[in-house]
Write the structure tokens for this entry.
Amino acid sequence: MMGISKRDLKYMIKAIEDIAKSKQKRGLPTHKEEELIEAWKQELSRMDTESKSSGLKR
């Protein structure tokens, strides 16, 4: 996910979580949203790890 900032990724995760909650209230399936949230959280974690490791190299 090149070109997406950590802040933007956090906003995207929050937006999809809100969509999933709305769909759950209406009794609709949310498995696609859950997969997307999980993938984005993994990407965010990877970005955090990279930023920490690059910070140690300086």
The chain is about 80% helix and 0% strand. Helices lie at 6-25, 31-57.
